[in-house]
Design goal:
The complex is a heterotetramer of chains A (about 240), B (about 210), C (about 625) and D (about 290). Chain A is mostly helical and about 240 residues long. In chain A, about 55% of the residues lie in helices and about 0% in strands. Chain B is mainly alpha-helical and about 210 residues long. Chain B has eight helices and two strands. The chains are: A mainly alpha (about 240), B mainly alpha (about 210), C mainly alpha (about 625), D alpha+beta (about 290).
């Protein structure tokens, strides 16, 4: 039974690492079950590949399992064999029951965070010249209009942010505004959460439609202030 | 049962029938089919396990002259036309880009007068600059720009004016076009087919 | 998924009620005329029909399946001649007869495959004209001249194919053979043009250029040279090689599984090896072509790029990653099986390197398959503070993906080199140094790729895209270009310690060949859906809007059903073609013994050759 | 025959392992979390689960003992910033919600901290109506998605009753012709407890949200602190100046359903059959 115990052990160790070690690394968080499943699947298939890559290793892996299932010459393990044979259908039944039962968990929300902007926004560039004054102005506007949610430190942790789901974007995160062009931000600020396409789940976003309150020029300045304050630079083609 | 659950059930039965074939049938070809069924079923199950998201077409917007109150409104319409019906963005960009095949239009509204802009769009061959940006004799630009007021693009005068307003706005310039200059529709300027036919007339009015 | 409301029932019902189809047509025509009447009142007295539909199934689904099948068949029909021609050339230059036989065996398929492809092309054309008259009118208006060129090419291609196939035995020797080889080359050249012309129509739909006034010819020419035309051409031609190779492998796999005689087992084992080799060979280049295409799309229109990579199609790339992952694993697995089974006594010797490569491959796959936005429940998302994992989220971006895909290619390349060298002993005096150099190159390249990948996080996007990713690709290509000739040189003087024994592979090798082929076909159908959906609600992006009821793009689960259906149909059609083509000479094949030929020097393993074939041993099981 | 077997088995086992892996992990992934995380008051929840009770609902008694049998769900609140007349500081920071239903009526209990009892203290619950998604801020119109209306249940301390309203964007609030919602508030120890109740199905699917036991529906909350600004005498929170929550989920638990056991029994049968055939094949293979 060597290899199969190895396989189980390998999966258990991987699971424990993913479940209990990785989340406790500083700056980390618990992994979603889908990801853990993916990694376990990779581990298992890797093991199976190695176990079946040669005739000898396959025999070493599969022979004991076969003998165990058939019940030939396994001596004291006979009882265990029956346990496995009874447990397996029960496990399948239990999982079937679980998957047909009404779930306690609400449907997952897999919102697309950066959906495609409408065509008329994809190709704009900032008409406001980038000078220390305009950036400073932008930061001022940011403090007045944006910081309550997106935070004075550009980290998405403003005082008004706590109740909102999805949470306000964290501009200090290098996978948010640093991946986007200024025109994208212009669209998002101008049209707000209600301007998102369906995959962005506009009905959940608390982002105001700022075109109702701010002139375009201010928005462009805010964008400059945002990048400068969050120490990021927009994606460009230059 | 939800649509997804139903599809999942179908997938499971596809996988199940594959397993059945492998269990009970000995000849090779059906067994391969069973194997393929299992693979395809698992593929569909995976596809059903990720979030199901469809993309719906957005509502089509029409250029309605009644909604235009300020030059900014006009520029907003111009922006839409620039990137869609006018097909300007198929070649031009606003701001530097690697994909630009024609001149970058950033700041163009500040450099050129609105009349010149209008003429460049309707009579692109009127003034052809020579290209001095390389060694040797200056080259003629192969002015590939189509006349915007003619087929197949066929923008109306109103539409061209709003594009100019947009270009001025994108250059950080005050918009010099007033909504009162627009043609008041005796016939709808929004209908694309008509607009295309009335192209030459719009040019005449512009001068 | 509510919008698809009960499509299953409709599908089921449509299967049982063929008689209703005609009635359905009538009703659909009647229904369609209603909006046309309203529309007509607005614009013109008799507006032309823009769309037609068929009941139950839906016009879009029909077009989808037929177009996908046509495309797959076309890929097969274009991939096989390349494959056949290369085999023929190998036989011609190297004098190994069995390659000629293999080439002929596949060319035989061509005639029936070719007509099936044309048949589906014709059906597709009729359906397009019937269902999408507005769009077809528009495209015809622009592309009319290239339609004519296409037709002429078709005639020429058909003639060439007939000459090539029917003249095979007649032009076997001397100058005639040279002419035959030339015919094969022309066959591929015409086929290439036959591919790129429809590509221009399809790519124009996703990346149109402005059509100025001019002659028909000038307009068609301008529209043909649209920004994604060449990236798609290159991508498709490589993909066709991959498809041809893996289908050949799958065919060999099935024949191997059902083989009755040792000769058959030998032959199909070898054919499976060649198919897998060609598939892998193309596969190594495919990511680069895909990257180029994606880059062009991003440059052409940022919106389209975002729709694909970050927008509603972003989940599709999880599936793509899975399929590619299985493909890489499957291909390497087959190589490794080949080492342990075909080279007796090598299992233990190669276990350690295999383990190392497997671990690297799995780690790369883990990164490759980790999406940026994770599939998570609300609670899980709340704990992560969003749908990005704070730590693993960095694995989801381009820099990481490029790095691991390059590493996976390196590992697969190493698998191949290992296979090549297996059972050989170097005799050259400089072998040690050469091996050290090769090892150093591999390690250095791996490290360099990783360093560039990590560094890529700290530079602006454009530097990463323009310099870092390109450098990574160049490094990997460089490694291949240095190690392959070095190994070839080494092999030239190497002494064979253990002969390769064909026909000893276990059945799972046959199944893994089938699995690889299925993965490739699924990938092609998946990316077909991606390419079509990236146009969102446009027929011609930004120019001709889709105003039909099918303007929406369906969700992945539903789409995957159609992809699986296409894959299955395609497999069945190909199986049918193979069956028809080989029906006549089944008996012959059984009695024929494998031809014996001189081994060419310099490329033994690449060609999968071994003198063991001259003395076929009885398989052990 | 052994050889034949060695062909069959790996493929079957591989396929079965994968299939079973999917069967097991997918539901497990969905199932695991809620169990691990009993909705504690301190931790944010994502759904209110309303158990089915036998006997009378505490529809007009916010302090009834039976409420303790309903699991509490806590939702964070934010000041309303979506609409231009925003306030940046709201009194209510957390909303604790419980639900109960008896098969025909539903009762929802809101509980939140408010330091003072004022006549203008108010609270509201909000739902989407029908299939269309509605923006959480009063069903604001959305640019690319056709939204639907929201159904709002509103209670104000000085009125002492529930109001059933609809809105589709700010400034479109409309009191319904048919009032189905009852509400009652009780203030004690600096905390409000407000109970709303309504029939699960009011027969007006165009205006009222239909609560079924089939799945989750969207729910949102709002609260107004009716305290007046001591200097100006103006209300600090009124109209759109309030504390709001995002969309969360509400579910009226279904009566026990035994179909799952049938499916499980079928699955057990299939698994047994599979096992039987597999082992028989293995045995044959060995004997041959």
């Amino acid at each position: 039974m060597g290899p199969i115990i190895k396989l189980i052990l390998l999966n258990v160790v991987t699971y424990l690492i993913l479940k209990f070690v990785l989340p406790n690394v500083p700056g980390s968080a618990p992994l979603p079950a889908s990801l853990i499943f993916l990694y376990l699947l990779l581990t298992t298939s890797g093991f199976l590949i190695l176990a079946t890559v040669s005739a000898e290793s396959k025999e070493e892996f599969w022979g004991p399992i076969q003998r165990f299932l058939v019940g030939d010459g396994i001596g004291g393990l006979q009882a265990l064999r029956w346990v496995v044979l009874i447990l397996f259908p029960l496990l399948v039944g239990w999982q079937t029951y679980n998957s047909t039962a009404v779930s306690d968990a609400p449907p997952g929300e897999n919102r697309t965070i950066h959906p495609a902007p409408p065509g008329e926004y994809a190709g704009l560039s900032n008409p406001v010249p980038k000078t220390p004054e305009t950036i400073q102005q932008g930061k001022g506007f940011y403090a007045a209009f944006c910081s309550p949610c997106h935070g004075g430190n550009f980290d998405g942790k403003g005082s008004a942010a706590r109740g909102f789901n999805p949470p306000p974007a964290n501009f200090a995160d290098p996978t948010t505004i640093a991946m986007l062009q200024e025109s994208y931000l212009f669209w998002r600020i101008k049209k707000g959460g209600v301007g998102l396409p369906i995959e962005g789940m506009p009905w959940k976003s608390a982002m105001p439609r700022w075109e109702l309150e701010l002139p375009d020029e201010w928005i462009w300045k805010i964008i400059m202030g945002e990048y400068d304050g969050a120490h990021q630079s927009p994606r460009t083609w230059e | 049962m939800s649509e997804v659950a139903r599809l999942q059930l179908i997938c499971l039965s596809v996988v199940g029938s594959g397993i059945l074939i492998l269990l009970f049938i000995k000849s090779v070809f059906p067994r391969v089919i069973g194997f393929v069924a299992i693979v395809l079923g698992l593929f569909m199950l995976t596809a059903l396990a990720v979030p199901q998201m469809a993309s719906l077409p957005p509502v089509e917007e029409k250029f309605d002259i009644a909604t235009v109150k300020t030059p900014t409104d006009l520029a907003a319409i111009g922006q839409k036309i620039f990137f869609s019906k006018g097909q300007c963005a198929l070649c031009h960009t606003i701001g530097p880009s690697e994909s630009a095949r024609c001149p970058d239009l950033k700041g163009i509204g500040a450099k050129l007068s609105r009349e010149f802009l209008y003429e460049s769009m309707t009579q692109p061959q009127a003034y052809i600059y020579k290209d001095y940006r390389h060694e040797g004799l200056p080259k003629m630009y192969p002015a590939e720009m189509p006349a915007i007021n003619k087929n197949p693009i066929g923008l109306s005068r109103n539409e061209i004016l709003s594009v100019i307003a947009f270009l001025q706005q994108m250059s950080g310039e005050p918009i010099s076009i007033n909504p009162s200059e627009l043609d008041v529709p005796g016939q709808a300027p929004a209908a694309p087919v008509k607009a295309a036919q009335s192209g030459p007339m719009a040019v005449a009015q512009a001068h | 998924m509510g919008y698809q409301g009960g499509w299953i029932q409709r599908l089921l019902r449509s299967g049982s009620g063929h008689g209703g189809t005609l009635l359905g047509f009538a009703i659909a025509a009647g229904l369609l005329s209603l909006p046309a009447l309203v529309f007509g009142a607005d614009v013109a007295p008799a507006a032309p029909t823009e769309y037609r539909d068929i009941p139950y199934v839906g016009s879009r689904n029909v077009i989808w399946v037929v177009a996908q099948l046509h495309l797959l068949l076309a890929g097969f029909v274009l991939g096989v001649p390349m494959f056949a021609w290369v085999c023929e050339v190998v036989a011609w230059r190297g004098g190994e007869k069995r390659y000629d036989k293999l080439a002929k065996e596949f060319t035989k398929l061509l005639t029936s495959a070719y007509s099936t492809t044309a048949l589906f092309g014709g059906i597709l054309l009729f359906l397009l004209i019937a269902f999408y008259p507005k769009l077809m009118n528009y495209l015809t208006d622009i592309f009319f001249p290239s339609f004519i060129v296409y037709c002429i090419l078709f005639l020429v291609e058909t003639a060439t194919l007939y000459l090539y196939w029917y003249g095979w035995d007649a032009m076997q020797y001397g100058g005639k053979k040279t002419f035959h080889i030339f015919l094969g080359l022309m066959l591929n050249v015409f086929a290439f043009f036959i591919m790129i012309i429809p590509n221009s129509w399809a790519t124009f739909q996703s990346s149109p250029v402005v059509i100025a006034e001019g002659t028909d010819m000038a307009r068609a020419w301008a529209a043909t040279w649209n920004p994604t035309w060449w990236p798609v051409n290159i991508h498709r031609i490589i993909a066709n090689v991959v498809l041809g190779g893996y289908i050949c492998g799958a065919y060999a796999g099935i024949r191997y599984l059902s083989a009755k005689t040792p000769e058959e087992r030998d032959h199909y084992d070898w054919m499976g090896y060649v198919g897998n080799f060609i598939g892998v060979f193309g596969l190594l280049a495919l990511p680069f072509a895909g990257y180029w295409l994606m880059r062009e799309i991003y440059q052409y229109n940022q919106q389209m790029g975002i729709t694909l990579m970050g927008g509603f199609l972003s989940w599709l790339f999880i599936l793509q990653a899975m399929l590619i992952g299985v493909l890489f694993l499957g291909s390497n697995y087959y190589f490794w099986l080949g080492i342990t089974y075909r080279i007796p006594g090598s299992a233990l010797k190669y276990r350690k390197p295999m383990l190392a490569m497997l671990v690297v491959l799995l780690l790369c796959l883990a990164v490759w398959m980790t999406p940026h936005s994770l599939v998570a429940s609300l609670e899980e998302a709340a704990k992560m503070g969003g749908s990005h994992h704070p730590l693993l989220g960095v694995l989801g971006v381009m820099s990481a993906k490029m790095t691991v895909s390059n590493l996976m290619i390196l590992v697969t390349f190493m698998s191949f080199i290992m296979y090549w060298r297996a059972g050989k002993q170097d005799t050259a005096g400089w072998a040690k140094i050469a091996k050290a150099i090769m090892g150093a190159i591999l390690v250095l390249a791996g490290v360099a790729v990783i360093i560039l990948g990590v560094w890529g996080y700290f530079v602006p996007a454009i530097i990463r895209i323009n310099y870092f990713s390109t450098s990574q690709v160049l490094i990997v290509i460089g490694v291949m270009l240095t190690i392959t000739p070095l190994t070839a040189l080494l092999m030239k003087s190497a002494k064979t310690t253990t002969e390769m024994a064909w026909g000893k592979m276990p059945p799972r090798a046959g199944y893994s060949l089938v699995l690889n082929a299925i993965m490739v076909i699924l990938l092609m159908t998946l990316m077909g859906y991606a390419r079509s959906s990236s146009r969102v609600h446009w027929h011609v992006y930004g120019v001709v809007r889709d105003t039909s009821q099918y303007a929406f793009s369906p969700a992945l689960g539903y789409a995957s059903g159609i992809m699986a259906l296409c894959t299955f149909f395609f497999c069945m059609i190909v199986a049918f073609i193979f069956w028809v083509a080989t029906m006549g000479d089944k008996a012959k094949a059984v009695s024929a013994s494998p031809s014996k030929g001189e081994l060419p020097h310099g490329m033994p393993a690449m060609a999968g050759a071994s003198s063991a074939l001259d003395a076929p041993k009885a398989p052990k099981f | 025959m052994i050889r034949g077997l060695s062909r069959i088995v790996p493929n079957v086992v591989g396929g079965v392992c994968l299939a079973i892996g999917f069967l097991i992990v997918q539901p497990a992934a969905a199932e695991e979390k809620p169990k691990a995380e009993a909705p504690a008051e301190t931790q944010a929840s994502s759904a209110v689960s309303a158990p089915l009770v036998k006997g009378a609902l505490p529809a007009d008694d916010p302090t009834a003992a039976i409420w303790s049998s309903a699991p509490p769900a806590t939702f964070p609140m934010s000041p309303q910033v979506h609409w231009p007349t925003r306030n940046l500081e709201a009194t209510v920071k957390d909303m604790i919600v419980r639900g109960l239903h008896d098969g025909t009526n539903v009762a929802i209990l809101l509980e939140y901290a408010d330091p003072t009892e004022d006549p203008d203290d108010a609270a509201a619950v909000q739902f989407m109506v029908g299939d269309k998604k509605a923006h959480f801020a009063h069903g604001q119109p959305m640019a690319q998605v056709e939204g639907g209306p929201v159904n709002i249940w509103y209670w104000k301390n000085k009125d002492g009753k529930g109001v059933d309203m609809n809105a589709k964007g700010f400034g479109t609030l409309k009191i319904q012709d048919h009032q189905d919602v009852k509400a009652k508030g009780a203030y004690a120890n600096g905390r409000w407890k407000v109970v709303f109740s309504r029939p699960l199905d009011t027969g007006h699917p165009e205006e009222d949200t239909l609560i079924t036991t089939a799945g989750f529906i969207n729910i949102g909350f709002a609260a107004w602190d009716g305290k007046k600004d001591p200097s100006s005498g103006e209300l600090k929170e009124k109209g759109s100046q309030k504390a709001v929550s995002s969309w969360w989920y509400f579910r009226a638990e279904a009566p026990p359903n035994y179909t799952g056991y049938y499916y499980a029994a079928i699955a057990v049968g299939l698994a047994l059959g599979f096992q039987f055939v597999l082992i028989r094949k293995l045995k044959k293979g060995q004997s041959a």
